[in-house]
Design brief:
alpha/beta; six-stranded mixed beta sheet; 16 strands
Amino acid sequence: MTQNTLTVACIQTNSTPDLAANLDRARHFIREARKRGADFIALPENVSLIGAERDALLAQSPREEDHQAVAFFRAEARKTGAWILAGSIPVSVGEDRLANRSFLFSPRGEVAARYDKIHMFDATLSDTEVYRESRNYRPGSKAVIADTPWGKIGMTICYDLRFPQLHRALAKAGASILTIPAAFVATTGRLHWHVLVRARAIETGCFVIAPGQCGMHNAQRLSYGHSLIVAPNGQILAEAGEQPGIIMAEIDLADVVEARRKLPNLTHDCAFDCPE
């Protein structure tokens, strides 16, 4: 039987090139969130490792079955009895290529779902701020929906946020909750983060759980923070600032039904021709 209500926690972290230290900090926040009553604990993109140079990144990113971070989150899910979203972990897919992979772990420590980030963040924000995610990562090719006691959850990651068609497809396939773990860069975060997260909720009638990275990860990389939990009507239920920490909200899936009853835009798609 589907449960209607759950307590959600977003953990905001400042991950670094030190994998072991990142996991130690994640453990502290996971245990604290569970102690405070969280049923579903979400962590950000690159929760295990961010800011490492290419050689160090590849060296610390083995295949999923051998990955220290995957084993860590399995154990934490079993230990706490919570559902845990490890926002993303870099895992080897061979030939010096990685997948930016999001994992959802059940309370039994099993991988309930995995999603490889589809859209690569290749952007030139200024002469000195250039990002080429595709240099190290192979993009995913499949949208993913996870089954949970609260219904279906659609999984995306960070730059995917800018592609509404993906989130709309997940909602039309049955998702009531969207997870968007991120390491949103501060430059664009100040302008776009709140607008885009709220828009995805409003367009789909879904709850959006968006845990983010914050602060400096190395000399060049600064993340925006401001993790969000957003209701289907676009209301911000909880927001973090710019420091590591935990935000929480109790959500009721009946709100999804009500939002879609009032604004049934998911049923109003129509075909049209674009000018050539």
